Amino acid sequence: MRLDTPRRSATRAAPKPREHLWALVKAGRRMDASLLFHGESYGWETQLLEGGDLVYGQRFPLKAGAISRSDRASPRRCQRTVKISQVLKAG
């Protein structure tokens, strides 16, 4: 390595801001839906979070598609997701 080459900074990049869409609270559990923008080349990502942990994520080229998908995430689907994540955490 050359001595005159600049080193990369050891600081971490700031987290990307999320656009919160909705929250569901039932029996002490919280499910959140949010959008995350990754740039023009990658697009938008819909994320379902359980207690702040990522349970489901899907990428869409347009914001409208990502919002539509998050709106179709029914409470019944969220309940099934919570049950699956409980099994994964227990096992």
Count of DSSP E strands?
4
Number of helices, counting only DSSP H or I runs of 4 residues or more: 2
* Integer count of domains: 1
Q: Write down the overall geometry.
A: flat
Question: What can you see in these coordinates?
Answer:
By secondary structure, this protein is an alpha+beta fold. The protein has one domain. It contains 2 helices and 4 strands; from the N terminus they run E-E-E-E-H-H. A 4-stranded antiparallel beta sheet has the order 1-2-3-4. The longest helix is centred in the C-terminal third of the chain and has 16 residues.
Topology of this structure?
Layout: E1 18-26, E2 29-37, E3 44-50, E4 53-60, H1 63-71, H2 75-90
Antiparallel strand pairs: 1-2, 2-3, 3-4
Describe what is shown at a glance.
The protein has helices spanning 63-71, 75-90, and strands at 18-26, 29-37, 44-50, 53-60. With 91 residues, the chain is of the alpha+beta class. The chain starts with 17 loop residues before the first strand and ends with a helix.
What descriptive keywords fit this protein?
disordered C terminus, 4 strands, alpha+beta, four-stranded antiparallel β-sheet
